[in-house]
């Protein structure tokens, strides 16, 4: 696959994935089309050497793996990412009727850069649980797939000091303006969900029981920059890594077992049944190993590369970076390090990755947060502590992390995939 084809498919994936549920649905479809057999956690697993498998949990987390040989002797080459992104989530009872308008109450999901959500053309996507005409509970994905709301800014004439900085109140300033509503009308969000289900061909929905719906920007992902050297999109953190991991798995002929895990809920701490701090990955690995002894042997021979975007040095705000660890866009993937274990990288795993990049002819950079600023984290340290597996944190450098629209280099995703392909082809990982 050429870099151009790789990036075009990336843009398509981003546009098709307005929520973690949609991202996992797209990934599941791609793996199944490539011949991966879908597993159900409720069933007994009869795994066979030479086969590839995929399993999901909660519809928002996914594990895909290949078994060309017995994994106990060689261990797994594991890749990790997360499916969720900071955003605004529609409340369960969101209806706000005043001044002749219907607005939606929302809550913030993760560390949202709130100012970027104003004056955007917004839509809604997620998962809906409904009572069917047969009286059972069913679930389906929903996506309005068009601009249905916005959060208009207050005019500068009414707040002359706004450009000096203004606090945003998540309760009162963020409700989404949805529609004009006369005094005789009583439209509610559940009604709109029901209408959308009918539009999508769901005919057996009798009552909306619950929903997990998220706002998203309808502007499509795009190549930008004078020479189209950048990618601009919502949810680059961290669907970019999910896509890179998926393409690496699908386009590498592994001689040793390989695995990709993409967890939900990283942006809110990973503490859930489908998050990295939950038992999903461990459960899959133990079922593959079959016994505790084989499981421990397998992990000792394995390595995990956690992929999550890194902070590229912003030319307008260079003072927020350590100049010796300030990644540039389009200059290759970034090794992420932190003395306090906010990243799981150590000298062994970092050295391994540098060697892999040399073999793949891929430039590599490093990132360490300024010593006087707090550092974020990833699923890397959580996975390392839960499994006891050697782990490395890497990522593609980007700007505007947690904005409604982020920016990355158009070459870096392809660079990282090349390095990860080299990793999956390693038959031995010796200390």
Describe the overall structure.
This protein is of the alpha/beta class and 431 residues long. The chain has two domains: 3-85 and 234-424, Zn peptidases (Aminopeptidase, 3-Layer(aba) Sandwich); 87-217, Aminopeptidase i, Domain 2. 26% of the residues lie in helices and 27% in strands. It has ten helices and 20 strands. The chain is globular and about 70 Å long. The mean pLDDT is 95.
CATH top level label of the largest domain: Alpha Beta
User: Helix share of residues?
Assistant: 25-40%
Major β-sheet, in short? 9 strands, mixed
CATH architecture of the largest domain: 3-Layer(aba) Sandwich
Number of domains: 2
Mean pLDDT: 95
| CATH fold node name of the largest domain | Aminopeptidase
As residue ranges, the low-confidence spans are: none
Order of helices and strands: HHEEEHEEEEEEHEEEHEHHEEEHEHEEEH
C-alpha-based Rg, rounded: 22 Å
Q: How do the strands of the widest beta sheet line up side by side?
A: 1-2-3-13-4-14-18-16-17
Q: How many strand segments?
A: 20
Helical run tally: 10
Indicate the structural class.
alpha/beta
Distance between the termini: 33 Å
């Amino acid at each position: 696959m050429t870099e151009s084809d790789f990036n075009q498919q990336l843009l398509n994936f981003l546009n098709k994935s307005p929520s973690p549920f949609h991202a996992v649905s797209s990934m599941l479809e791609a793996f199944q089309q490539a011949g991966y057999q879908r597993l159900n956690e409720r069933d007994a697993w009869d795994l066979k050497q030479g086969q590839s498998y995929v399993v999901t949990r909660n519809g928002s987390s996914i594990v895909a793996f290949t078994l060309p040989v017995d994994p106990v002797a060689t261990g797994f080459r594991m890749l990790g990412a997360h499916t969720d992104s900071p955003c605004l989530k529609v409340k369960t009872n969101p209806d706000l009727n005043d001044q002749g308008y219907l607005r939606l109450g929302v809550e913030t999901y993760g560390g949202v850069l709130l100012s970027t959500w104003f004056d955007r053309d917004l839509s809604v996507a997620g998962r809906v649980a409904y009572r069917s005409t047969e009286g059972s509970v069913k679930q389906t994905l929903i996506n309005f797939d068009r601009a249905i709301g916005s959060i208009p800014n207050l005019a500068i004439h009414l707040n002359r000091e706004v450009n000096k900085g203004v606090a945003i109140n998540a309760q009162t300033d963020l409700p989404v303006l949805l529609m004009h509503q006369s005094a005789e009308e009583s439209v509610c969000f559940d009604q709109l969900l029901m209408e959308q289900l009918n539009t999508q061909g769901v005919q057996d929905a009798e009552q909306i029981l619950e929903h997990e719906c998220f706002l998203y920007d309808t502007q499509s992902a795009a190549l930008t920059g004078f020479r189209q050297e950048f990618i601009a999109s919502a949810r680059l953190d961290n669907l970019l890594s999910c896509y890179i991991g998926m393409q690496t798995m699908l386009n590498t002929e592994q001689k040793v077992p390989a695995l990709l895990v993409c967890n939900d809920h990283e942006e809110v701490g990973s503490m859930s049944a489908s998050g990295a701090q939950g038992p999903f990955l461990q459960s899959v690995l133990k079922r593959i190993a079959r016994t505790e002894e084989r499981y421990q042997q397998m992990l000792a021979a394995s390595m995990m590369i956690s992929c999550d975007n890194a902070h590229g040095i912003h030319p307008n705000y260079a003072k927020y970076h350590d100049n010796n660890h300030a990644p540039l866009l389009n200059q290759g993937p970034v090794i992420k390090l932190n003395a306090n274990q906010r990243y799981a990288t150590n000298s062994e795993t970092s050295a391994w990755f540098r060697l892999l990049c040399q073999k793949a002819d891929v430039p590599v950079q490093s990132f360490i947060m300024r010593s006087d600023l707090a550092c974020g984290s990833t699923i890397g340290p959580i996975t390392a502590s839960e499994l006891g597996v050697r782990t490395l944190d890497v990522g593609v450098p980007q700007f505007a992390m947690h904005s409604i629209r982020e920016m990355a280099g158009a070459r870096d995703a392809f660079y990282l995939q090349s390095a990860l392909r080299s990793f999956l082809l390693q038959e031995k990982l010796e200390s």
